[in-house]
Every structure is written in C-alpha cells, then in structure tokens.
Design a protein that fits this description.
The complex is a heterodimer of chains A (496) and B (382). Chain A has 496 residues and is α+β, with helices and mostly antiparallel strands. In chain A, a hairpin with a 4-residue loop joins strand 5 and strand 6. In chain A, helix 9 crosses helix 11, helix 10 crosses helix 13 and helix 14 packs antiparallel against helix 15. Chain A is globular and about 70 Å long. The N and C termini of chain A lie close together (10 Å). By secondary structure, chain B is α+β, with helices and mostly antiparallel strands. Chain B is built from 13 helices and 18 strands. The longest helix of chain B is centred in the middle third of the chain and has 15 residues. Chain B is globular. Classes of the chains: A alpha+beta (496), B alpha+beta (382). Chains A and B meet through strand 9, helix 8, helix 9, helix 11 and helix 17 of A and strand 8, helix 6, strand 10, helix 7 and helix 8 of B.
C-alpha cells in the first residue's frame, strides 16, 4: 500500500475558516464542504485509493483560480488540481488536508483557427470534444487516450497523455502550442501561443506531464491535423511473441511508421474476443493490429510491404481490412481489452512501462515467471510500435492479500522494464502509483534536481504533494543536502 | 585570451565545475558564436572531447552521441541506414561566417529546427534523453532511451534550447526517423506575401501532408511533398489544383537543394553586414508583420513554416531594428541571430519576458546553476 503524507492537524482545524474564505472568492455553490458531496471526488481512475478532500473549489475563471491559489499560498494550504479524474496513476487523488481544485467549469472552446491549424480551449474541455469541434472541416486532434470521451485536455497536459496513434502523431507534448497557467502565487503567465516555437526556456515542455505539481493550466492551444484520407488495418497472428516482436522491429527498420501498431498476448486475445466477439484468431500466441493511414495509394502500397514482412516473420493468420466496418471490427477487441479483462476478473490493475522493442520477448517471459511467483494471472496489451507495455494484472480485492500481491507483481514488472533499459511509465504518469519506484530509474542526485525545479515553481511544496516524488524535501534544504555513502540526512523527513 | 578547459569525462567536468571560482562560456565546435547574449566569462569550457556515437539502433529509432560529435558525422551515419533527424537541423555556418556546421550538443543547446518542423516537430520533440553536469557540479541524467516516456519532469525539453545555461551537456539521446524515399517541390512564382501565406495555409489545411512551406519574396513560393513515390505523385496532383497555372514542379535533386537553401537561410547570406533576426509568429500574421517592419526599416526577409517563421536582415540601425521589430507582432517573439558587437551588447537576444515569467525563468536557472557559472546572462541579462 502506498502511504500519503500525514494530514496537518492545524490546517484541518481551520477547515471552516478556509471554506468561508473560499466562498469570498467563489460563488457559494462553487465551494463544496458537505461530506456526502466530497465523496464524489474521493478517487480518480486508480480507484483502489480513496481519500475525500478537505474541501472542493470549482472556479470558472482564471481570476478565480488565481485568487484561490494566492489564498492557499498565503495560508500554506495544499492544492490538488483535477480535470475529469480519469488518471490511472492517482494523480488526482485528494489530500485530507488539501483543497481539491476542480477545473470542470472551464468547459468552453474559445477559438477555432483553421487558417493556423489550431484551437484554443479551456482545460475542462474533453479530448474528444476538440475533435468534435473541428471535424466538420476534416480536422482532428491527434492524441487519443482510451478515456478520450471523458478525459479533459487540461488533464492530458498534466499527464502528457498518449494513445494508440502516438507512434506516428506524438503525445500531448508534441501537439500543443501554448498554455495560460497560474502559478501557486496566483501570478498568471502565458507560454507559447499560436506560433510554433515558444520563447525562452521550454517551460511548456516542463509543464506538460508535470502531473499538477508545478501550476494550474487555465487555457490550452492545441494543434489540429487534417484527417488522413484512408486508414486500413491488418490483423496478424503469430505462433510466438518472438515472431511478432521481430515483425514489429522489421516494419520499423523498413522505414514504415504505421499510424498504430498494437500487440496482444494470448490471454488478452481470448478475453477481448470473448467480450467483443470480434473474430480474433484464438489459436495464436500473439496478435498484431497494424494500421496504415494516408492517401489510398500510399496505404495500399505500404500494406503490401507490411504483408511481405509479416509473412517472412512466420505469421500464422493475416487479414487486411477491406472496409471501414472491418477496420473498426479489428480495433473493437483491442479497444475493449480493459472491460474485457474486467469481465474475467473482479479487479485488475493496469501497468504502463515502456521498454526497448527488442526486449519484448525477454520481458514477456519475465512477466510469465512473475505471474507464477505472485500467483496471479496477467494479460498483456502493448503499444508495440513505441514499446509501451500495458500488463493487466488480474486479482480479487475481496481475497486476502491479493491486492498487495498485485501491487508487488506490478512493481516487479516495472523494475524489469527499467532493468532492460526502459522506463516506469510511458503515458499514465507516476502519480502515487509509481512514486516509490522512482529511485529504480533515477539516482538520488537526479531526483533532487527534479525537485529543485519544482521549488522554482512551488516554493512551499503546496501543489499536489505526495505525488511523483518518494521523499518530500523542503526547498530550503534541497540546495545543501548531500548524500554521503547512502546515508540520508534529515531522518525526520517523511519518506513514504 | 580566455583560458580553455577541456574535460574528458563527466566526472572530470563535474570536478571542474564544482571547484570553479569563476563562470564559464560553453563551447562545442564554435559554429554559432553570435547566438544568445554575449557571455562575460573568464574561461571557456569546451565540450569538444565528448565525441562519438555511443548507441545507434535503427530498429529502436534511437541514437546516442557525445555532445561534441559533429552533426555532419551523425547525419552521414543516419543516411547510410535510410534514417534522419526529422527536424531538419540547419547549417548556419554560411549565415554566421563560421567554418563548422556544428555539434549535436550545440544543436540541442540552441534548439533551432528547420523547415520540416511544421510536420515533424522541433528539436525538443526529438530529444529523448541527455546527460550533463549542472552548475552545482552534479552529474545529471534526464529522460531515457525510449521514445515514449513520462517518468518525472521532461528535463530533456527544458535543457533543449537553454543555450548551455542549465547543464553542460555531454551526451544526448535522440529519436531518429526513416528518411522519406523521395521528395519533390511545387514552386509557384509571382505571389505577393499575403497571397503566398494564404496559399500555404490552404496547402497545410489539405490532406496533402506538406512537409515544407516557404515563400521567398520576388523568387517563389515552395511546397514540399515527401514519402513513397506513388503517394507523392497523388498528392502533387491534388495540390496542383490549388496552385494556379504558373506552378512548376522541382524534382528530387532540385527540391533537396531548394530546401537546404531555405533551411540554411541562404536568401539572406549576401547581406553580410545586416543584423539577422528570426521571428516566430502566428503564421497568418506573417505578411502583416513583415509589412510593418519593412515600412520603417531597410529590411529583407523571407518566410518559412507557412508564414510562421520570418527570417529578416536589417541594415543600418543602431539597435538592429529591435524597437520596431519587437512591436510588430501581437504574439510571438524575435531572436537576434547575428549582429555587430555594438548591437549585441545593448539589444537582448531573446524576447524580453513579462515580469512573472522572467522571475520564474531566473528561479529555473538558479535551480540548475545556483552560482551562475554556466553561460551567465546568455538567456537574459542579470
């Protein structure tokens, strides 16, 4: 179990005063303090962890966000920003002594600018709503996290969200041009805009994926793209993960960057097919969905090349979509993989490591061994094109110690990812989920440098504390602390 | 002559910085000496010894090299395997009057991308990881060797374009991509700036997947297509319907040459004594910005990035034209790329920032370089 910092009793005792102060800044009903209403905010999509916030504030203007943050900063009260609460890593988990700052009221599309291929939106606009706003002219917003119907662009910026198409089109960070944000002091700054290079230090790059620890985003300018004319998908089965992995490597080495290249292992194939009845081959060990997009002539030509590569790498089954309906049917199982797994197991957790593609067979073998060690089933879905692995660990929370074993299993998988040259998280963020694993990937020196950067934004450590970093440091002491022979100074600091 | 230190290892470098009593000016191959504010430092820290490609895995789309590795060597190596740095790194040697096309560390330090930026992203979108020494003398590792990673803050992006003011970078890991099999360019003559930018906007809004869109006044408007041959032919036919009857098609070889010229700012090379500026603006604002500037300054210019990047040469102004230029756009920024010392000593090289942002930038600098040892003042004078 992950432990959060102990709440500050002094702050809790001032709860009534704090609510009253917030109501001087915000309309009365934009401040929530009733216990039953607070419960609606007690978790995000990492639902194993729950904690009602001390209070919820729901500003609707940048000036209100600024006033709330200034008040919180002046009075040393913690803030947890929240979009739609779809984080899979606990990024929006409230703090018992913190204000949950909900951005849901920032729900307007402010400016659609086709001439400059960009859209300016408020952070509470959902990912899919951006595409909806521009698709009548053939445009779309490229990053497509699976929660895109619900997740907000502000949350996407905080988590640097990806999706199945980011191999070709990039993550959130590659698709936004500018933001307006509020610093913890209440100061409002703008980074970037409709121009392509933001000036000075790339603070836009730092803010993207900073998990609510550096500031609160109040406006986002995103790039939009013209939809490709055609998309076709291939469904390719293999007798082994090795063959599938070699096929993926060879497609890339041949100079082809597919729009998406997904892989599923046998348990995932079966779960998805049982759930979505999508006609997946059931006697293969690995299944690839490879999607090519662009002009028809390009797609047809590349499909032929990929087919030759698949055949050479001993594909057992191979289907090519001949219609849009068929293409969507190939995806139906993959897109339903999570609910499908939810049907065969009372609970599951979804991991998110990235590995060098060449390590895939080794990592899948390792996961099988770990599955035996921890006595839990696992199904693997994999953004094979960019090496982003999503093992789904199946467990039953009502059975003694299964949740703890599932977490331990997940941690072992991520350690394995780092060991083969990969990383802890490819698109879900660190949050609380992977917080305590950060030292697997970064040295104490690296982590302290990242925290010094946080201090440049948040001198009192009030923004989303307890997330991302395994040890809370006071800013004043970060400049001086030095670790000698593994002995940590300041043994009094909370290390959780 | 300033003293030059040339460390040979990360540890060597870390010891030098940790023990330093005075600030350093960082140097790679010396290819871009006029970028950024002049640095007053008693000693030069050369990163030229950190050379060599450490890792190149074409199937993983990654390359890792020492910061001092020559860009030309890296590009040669990638070409052999049919790959490239997709952000199309410029060679500023002719523009800046230097003899080197630069090192990979220098490229990451300045963070300047070429014409393909409109399609493939900027330098910062391709820096996956790096290693270097902070101003506190600590060896820092940031990012990783995989293309998809959100673990911790994105320090590689922050350090890219920081002009050596946060870390003395010794090694970088880059995302590389397949080189397109072929390219060609549609050239449209005779367009006025406004018409050219409107056409480039239409082309960018089409499904033609344009990978370069530039306009050189008095010369022509250029739209580049890249990919496999049948796809390029198909998209060319589509795009030509937008381009009018005077459009001509440059085949692969001429197309390559044309985009090298745009990338390396060749249209302004002949203006040897002018101040050179690089403006990043909202693309549709481009023509009006250029008009405002050239109505009060003796200026030559051309557009890249579909109008969003303006390269500008200004003659005979004591401030290089800064006062006029920096009032010419509603949003965006202007960077002074080359100018006489008298201009560089008084005009901020980068767009001055609003007070809250400027203060944040100073705190970020101090978070990496508390004693102000690395390229002091290069981003903003202190």
């Amino acid at each position: 179990m992950i432990v959060m910092p102990p709440p500050d009793e002094a702050v809790l005792s001032r709860r009534g005063d704090i609510a009253a102060a917030l109501r001087r800044i915000l309309p009365h009903d934009h401040v929530i303090d009733a216990a039953t209403a607070l419960r609606a905010y007690e978790s995000d999509a990492l639902a194993a962890y729950r904690q009602p916030p001390m209070l919820v504030a729901l500003p609707s203007t940048t000036a209100q966000v600024s006033a709330v943050l200034k008040y919180a900063h002046d009075n040393a009260i913690k803030i947890v920003p929240r979009g739609a609460g779809t984080s899979l890593s606990g990024g929006a988990l409230p703090l018992a002594d913190g204000i949950l700052l909900g951005l849901a009221k920032f729900n307007r599309v402010l400016d659609i600018d086709f001439a400059n291929r960009c859209v300016v939106v408020q952070p509470g606009v959902t990912n899919l709503a951006i595409t909806t706003a521009v698709e009548h002219k053939g445009f779309y917003y490229a990053p497509d996290p699976s929660s895109q119907i619900a997740c907000t662009i502000g949350g996407n910026v905080a988590e640097n969200s990806g999706g199945v198409h980011c191999l070709k089109y990039g993550l959130t960070t590659n698709n936004i041009l500018g933001i307006e944000m509020v610093l913890v002091t209440g100061e409002v700054i703008r980074l970037g805009g409709k121009h392509l290079d933001s000036e000075g230090y790339d603070l836009l790059g730092v803010m993207t994926g900073s998990e609510g620890l550096l500031g609160v985003v109040t406006e986002v300018t995103v790039r939009i793209l013209q939809k490709p004319e055609t998309a076709r998908a291939m469904l390719v089965g293999f007798s082994s993960n090795e063959d599938a992995g070699l096929c993926v490597a060879e497609v890339i080495a041949a100079g082809i960057i597919p729009a998406g290249m997904e892989m599923m292992d046998r348990p995932a194939i079966h779960a998805a097919d049982d759930f979505a009845h999508c006609g997946y081959p059931r006697d293969v060990e690995a299944l690839l969905i490879i999607e090519l997009d662009g002009p028809q002539v390009e797609v047809d030509s590349l499909i032929a090349r990929v087919k030759a590569i698949a055949t050479k790498n001993k594909s057992r089954t191979l289907r090519i979509s001949e219609s849009e309906t068929e293409r969507l049917s190939f995806w139906a199982g993959r897109k339903a993989a999570f609910p499908a797994v939810g049907r065969i197991s009372p609970d599951y957790i979804c991991m998110d490591g990235t590995i060098p593609r060449k390590a895939l067979p080794q990592v899948l073998r390792g996961i099988t061994e770990l599955s035996e060690k921890h006595r839990l089933r696992v199904a693997n879905v994999f953004h094979a094109g960019d090496g982003n692995l999503h093992p789904l660990i199946l467990f039953d929370a009502n059975t003694a110690d299964e949740f703890e074993r599932a977490e331990a299993f997940g941690a072992d998988i991520l350690r394995l990812c780092v060991k083969v040259g990969g990383v802890l998280t490819g698109e879900h963020g660190v949050g609380i989920e992977k917080r305590d694993l950060m030292p697997e990937m970064f040295s104490e020196t690296d982590l302290r440098q990242q925290q010094r950067l946080k201090c440049a934004f948040d001198d009192k450590g009030l923004l989303n504390p307890g997330k991302v970093f395994p040890v809370l440091h006071r800013c004043a002491e970060l400049g001086r602390m030095h670790v000698k022979a593994g002995a940590l100074p300041h043994p009094d600091l909370p290390r959780f | 002559m300033a003293r030059t230190l040339a460390p040979k290892s990360d540890q060597d470098l870390a010891n030098m910085v940790a023990g330093a009593g005075k600030a350093f000016r960082l140097e790679g191959t010396g290819s871009k000496p006029t970028l950024g504010n002049p640095v007053a430092a008693a000693q030069v820290l050369s990163l030229a010894n950190f050379t060599g490609v450490e890792i190149y895995e074409p199937e993983e789309l990654i390359l890792e090299a020492g910061a001092g590795t020559k860009l030309s060597d890296i590009e040669k190596l990638l070409k052999k395997r049919g790959q490239m740095l997709a952000f199309e790194p410029p060679d500023f040697s002719s523009l800046l009057g230097t003899t080197s096309s630069g090192s990979i560390g220098g490229l990451v330090a300045v963070g300047l991308s070429g014409p393909r930026r409109i399609k493939a992203g900027a330098v910062r979108d391709h820096v996956l990881g790096l290693r270097g020494v902070s101003g506190a003398g600590e060896i820092i590792r940031a990012g990783a060797r995989v293309v998809k990673n959100v673990t911790g803050y994105d320090l590689p992006k922050l350090v890219t374009g920081s002009h050596g003011s946060l870390l003395a970078v010794t090694s970088v890991t880059l995302k590389v991509l397949p080189r397109p099999e072929t390219e060609e360019t549609i050239m449209i003559p005779y367009l006025a700036d406004q018409e050219a930018v409107a056409l480039m906007s239409l082309a960018m809004q089409s499904a033609a997947d344009v990978s370069g869109a530039a306009h050189v006044p008095g010369e022509g408007t250029y739209l580049r297509l890249e990919g496999i041959a049948p796809s390029v032919a198909f998209r060319r036919a589509r795009l030509l319907t937008l381009c009018g009857k005077h459009a001509a098609v440059l085949a692969e070889k001429d197309s390559t040459k044309q985009w090298q010229a745009i990338r390396d700012v060749k249209p302004l090379w002949k203006h040897r004594s002018h101040a050179i500026w690089r403006l990043s603006v909202t693309p549709s604002d481009g023509p009006a910005v250029a008009e405002r500037i050239s109505s009060s300054l003796d200026a030559r210019y051309f557009f890249d990035w579909a109008g969003g990047l303006i390269w500008l040469a200004v003659a005979g102004e004591k401030d290089g034209g800064a006062a006029v230029i920096r009032k010419s756009y509603p949003s965006g920024h202007a960077t002074l790329m080359r100018a006489a010392p008298s201009i560089r000593n008084q005009v901020p090289a980068f767009e001055p920032q609003a007070p809250a942002l400027a203060a944040l930038s100073r705190r970020v600098k101090a978070a990496f370089d508390p004693r102000n040892l690395l390229n002091p003042g290069i981003m903003a004078r202190t």
